[in-house]
Amino acid sequence: MEYKPLNHFRSEIRLVTIIPGEGSRIECTIKVVSLTLPPEYTALSYCWGNPKVTRDIYIGDHVLTVTTNLYAALMHLRLKDKPVTLWVDSICINQADISERNRQVSLMGVIYRKAKMTIAWLGESDDESHQCFDILEFLAWGLQDQAGNQFYHRLQLKNLKFQKLVKLFSRCYWIRSWIIQEVCLSQDVELVCGNRRLNWNVFSQALEYIQRDPELFTPEFRFPSSYYEHITMLKACREDMTGDVPLHFVDAVSRCRQSIATDPRDKVFSLLGLAYN
C-alpha cells in the first residue's frame, strides 16, 4: 500500500474509517487531518501480536496486512449502520518510512490526548472474561455503596471466582510499554474484550476495592506480582496525570521499569508524552 507524505510542520496524521458492514472482509478509508483542529476520532490501544500471523484488510483499492489481534479488534469495533473513525498506529503510520515513524511517535501523546476516547483492546473474549467483567462491575458497585449494604456485599464476595481475574489481568496487553501513555493521557478509556466493554473509571473503582480490603479475597486470588504491580501503576499514573502536579520524567521511568518493549529504546520513547521534563 502507498501512503501520501504527511506535513510534519502542520502536525498531520492519518485517520482510518471502518466502512459499515458485516462478514469477514474489512473495508476502510484513510484521510489526512491536522492535529491543530482534528475531527472526532477514537484512538486504539492494543498489542500488535505475532507479526507472522496476519489477515488482510482493504483500504480503497489497496490491501494492507495486519496482525490477527488487530484484525479481531477492527471486527469487534465495526458497526453495521455507521462508520467508525480510528487512529491505529500500524495502519495510520507508514511503517516502511523510518523518518515518518519517528515524527509520528513524537506526536503520539497529543494524538491520545485529543482523541474523544481510547479503546483498550484486551483481545478476544471467552467465558471467563465475560465473568471477569461482571466481577469487576460488582466490585466497583461495592466501593460506591456507602449505605448499609456492605455486609450483604461481603457475603456475596465469597461466591465469586476471583481466580478468573488472574487470567484476565495476566494478558500481554497490561505490560506493554506503549500502553502507559496511551491509557494515562487519554480523556476517556474503555476496556474492550471481545464484545464486552468496561469504562476505565469502573475498572479503577474495582481495583480500589481490592487495594482497600485485600483480606476479603480468597487465597487463590493471587496475581503474578509483575502484572499486578503494573496494573496498579497504570491506575496511579492516570490519577497523577489528572492532578495539579505534572509527572517528572525520572519518576515516570522509575514507575514503569517493569514494562516490556520489543525495542528497549521504546521503554523511554513510550514515556516522553507523560512527563514535563
Automatic annotation (TrEMBL):
Heterokaryon incompatibility domain residues: 41-182
Matches recorded under InterPro entries: HET, HetReg/Transcr_Mod
Alphabetical list of PANTHER family matching this protein: ANKYRIN REPEAT DOMAIN-CONTAINING PROTEIN 39 HOMOLOG-RELATED (PTHR24148), HET DOMAIN PROTEIN (AFU_ORTHOLOGUE AFUA_8G01020) (PTHR24148:SF73)
A Pfam short name: HET
Organism domain of life: Eukaryota
Full protein name: HET-domain-containing protein
Species in which this protein is naturally found: Patellaria atrata CBS 101060
